[in-house]
């Protein structure tokens, strides 16, 4: 049975490239595409894919927020975050939201195939240049894990 994948990226050329690479594998089928976080959430609920490859920077909801919302209703779906940013902050936030893998856009071709196969086997996957975060330690208000953890919700809101 083919692995059902939803692609969520605001750039059509990225989605088209990933579609070509993944469908060439023979056991992977792209069941849908989304160009923003809200569309990713709606399509995930309608299509119920096995895997979502989600850009971290998208309009409406960013990939981290969309991941968190999708996994609340579809906990068995595996999310792979796709990004050009690979700071500890981004990787840590993505994994806390429930992502199972984090791949860089610069190596998305081979990494996407490897990431899909890894998450379908119940494993995590990180692109070569990414250090897997240690999420087992607990953060307390006096000792935040990341700089973002020390900000209030209001401080994290984007400028208008």
Primary descriptors:
160 residues; alpha/beta; Rossmann fold; six-stranded parallel sheet; globular
Coarse structural class: alpha/beta
Question: What fold name goes in the CATH topology slot?
Answer: Rossmann fold
Strand order of the largest sheet: 2-1-3-4-5-6
- Proper CATH architecture: 3-Layer(aba) Sandwich
Mean pLDDT: 85
Number of strands: 6
Question: What is the percentage of strand-forming residues?
Answer: 15-25%
Q: In summary, what is this structure?
A:
With 160 residues, the chain is α/β, with parallel strands linked by helices. The chain is built from 6 helices and 6 strands. The protein has a single domain, classed as 3-Layer(aba) Sandwich (Rossmann fold).
